[in-house]
Amino acid sequence: MAEKPPPFSEGEDLQSFLAELESAGEVREIAGLESGFPNLSRALNGIRPGLYLLIGPPSCGKTAFARQLCDQVAARNLLPALFFSFTESKTDLRVRTLARLSGVEGDEILRGGGFLLHRYGVPKKRGYSPEQMPPSWEKVKEVAEEAKGWLDLVYLSEVIGKANVKEIEKRIRALRQAKASEQVMVVVDDSQRLGPSDLALDSRLPFVTERLQGLAADLKLPLLATWPDLTREGLPQAWAERVVGADVILVMEEDVQRTKRLTEPNRAIDLHIVKNRGGERGRLAFDFMPAFSRFVEASLDQNKYTS
Q1: Of the residues 56, 85, 186, 293, which has the fewest C-beta atoms closer than 10 A?
Q2: Domain ranges of the chain
């Protein structure tokens, strides 16, 4: 049996590590992946391997934000992305993307003027001619065609019935092999469903986060998981003490006063970065447009960071 080579000390490895950094050649503003939200990218120092936990009350836009972030990471970094959904169908998730890209309301896209939304930009005829389609449908098809390059990198996975982290890991590994890419952006929506159903929500939290954080660490990839806040009690910062395993904790909260200044049903959302092992903590302001499943960063003076 061949002997293992002796380990290298940090002093011996340091020069090769510096050479590796230097060979990259590019001076980057952030260490991780671009999120598509400039302020968020700066605050987090980019999206890097680890568990990102996105917490918020029902109907605050967690799924819309997670889907948009998933799409933007794939598009801006040209790497595969995998979105796991326990509650929303692939059709619903596709409509979110099309509405955000086209500026056509999701409800209008779903109606489709008598067409069934078959696949991105590919309507399946159901008794109506193209001449009878509303003009907005052409916009939907146009943006879908423009986005096809990066949409080919995004994969949706409906989770039917019970699922566990092992099954999620299996699907991630299959995608990495199929795309020949070690880097993959992963989103698990409604991650509380990975916990034992006989446990209360609070009791599932450490169980789920420990396993997802372990998965992100083992596979060396960024994993964003959404989690519902059903209590709506206490300060967002309290979540930093409740969740031990996550590398980054993001808490969504509506800014009621700022929402009053927006056109209904648009809403002002604050994203609190209450834990961040690799960057800043603080608050980022977003405008959320539910009809288009779109989040937009608010003006810079709305954003506040702490070290």
Answers
A1: 85
A2: 37-103+145-306
CA–CA separation, 40 and 273 (whole Å): 9
Q: What percentage of the chain exceeds 90 in pLDDT?
A: 63
Strand partners, 186: 82, 223
Tokens at 193, concatenated: 């469903």
218-243 pLDDT per residue, tens: 999 999 999 999 876 678 999 998 88
Per-residue pLDDT averaged across 296-302, rounded?
A: 74
Give the residue-averaged pLDDT of 231-258.
89
User: What pTM value is reported for the model?
Assistant: 0.84
CATH entry 3.40.50.300 includes domain 37-103+145-306? yes
Question: Which tokens hold the place of 210?
Answer: 């420990």
pLDDT of 303 strictly over 90:
no
Q: Compute CA 175 distance to the chain's CA centroid, rounded to the nearest angstrom.
A: 17
d(CA 93, CA 168): 18
